C-alpha cells in the first residue's frame, strides 16, 4: 500500500509532429504493479520496448482525439493480442471514445484476443483503482479535452512507538493492528483498557499526486485547485515564451505560462511536455518556466523516468 513505487515514464514528449528524438504524446505511470497509459501517440509500443517497461497495460486514458494522442493504440492492441492477452482493456477518454474503440475493434481483418471497452469521461469523472483514484478535469483546447489527476489515498499518520509502549501496548502484532486502524485491548497494572489508533497515530498524511494536463491553453485557476501541492505537474509547454500569440491561437501553453501555473498551484516539480518540433532542445523552455516557478523544472527527453517519492 503506502510503500508502492510511483514511476512516470515519458514515452513521447513531442508536440503535434514527431521529431527524430521525440515521439508523439505518451506517458506511462506505474504505481506498484499497476500500469496506466496517458495518451498513446504513434509508436508508443516501440517506446515501451526501448524503455523496457513491458506491455502489461491495465488501462489507457486519452486526453483528446487529436491524432498525435491516440494513433498508437491501434498498434499497441495488435501487439497485446499477438501476445495472447485475454484480460479486458479499458480505454477512457472524452466524448468520441466509443467511436474510437469501435474503430479499433473493426479496423482490418483480425480478431482481438481480448475485449476492449470504452468509458466516456467528463470533467469531474473519476476511476477508482486499488489505493488511488484517477480524476478527469476539463482542459481548454478548442474541442472536448481532459487532463488527469492521479491521487493516492491518504496514508495513516506516523505511529508513535514510544507512546504505545507507555500506554502498555507490547511491541509485536498489536502495533500492526493499531497501524491498520484497529483498536486493541491491553492490560496495564491489572487493569484492562482499550487503546485506540488515534492515541498512537499522528494525523493522516497525504498520498502522492501527479497531474497531467494534456494539450491546453493555460488554466491556472483550475489547476491551482486540482494540482494543489502536487508532487509532479506534467504540463503542455508546446512553445517558449517568444510564441505566446501562437500558443493562444493553437490552444496551447508556453513554458512560462506553465511555470506560472505551477507556482500558483504550489507544486513540487514541473515537467514540460508536448515540445513543438520547431525546437531542437528545450533549454529555452526550462529557462522560461524557471523565471516563474522556483521549484524543480524539467523537460524530459523521451524514455526518461521520474521516480515520485513520498514526502515526509
Ligand atoms: Zn497534441
Ligand atoms: Zn491537441
Which small-molecule species are bound to the chains here? zinc ion
Q: Which strands sit side by side, in order, in the main sheet?
A: 6-5-4-3-2-1-16
Largest sheet properties:
7 strands, mixed
Q: What amount of the residues lies in strands?
A: 25-35%
Report, as a whole number of angstroms, the end-to-end distance.
Answer: 16 Å
Number of helices: 10
Mean pLDDT: 95
Low-confidence stretches: none
Helix content: 25-40%
Rg from alpha-carbon coordinates: 22 Å
Shape: globular
SSE run: EEEHEHEHEEEEHHEEHEHEHHEHEE
Number of strands: 16
| Structural class assignment | alpha/beta
Keywords:
alpha/beta, binds zinc ion, seven-stranded mixed β-sheet, 26% strand, 10 helices, 312 residues, globular, single chain
Write the layout of secondary structure elements.
Layout: E1 6-12, E2 26-31, E3 34-40, H1 44-50, E4 59-61, H2 72-82, E5 89-93, H3 97-106, E6 116-120, E7 126-129, E8 132-138, E9 146-152, H4 161-166, H5 173-179, E10 184-188, E11 191-195, H6 197-200, E12 209-212, H7 220-226, E13 232-236, H8 244-249, H9 255-264, E14 269-273, H10 283-292, E15 296-298, E16 305-307
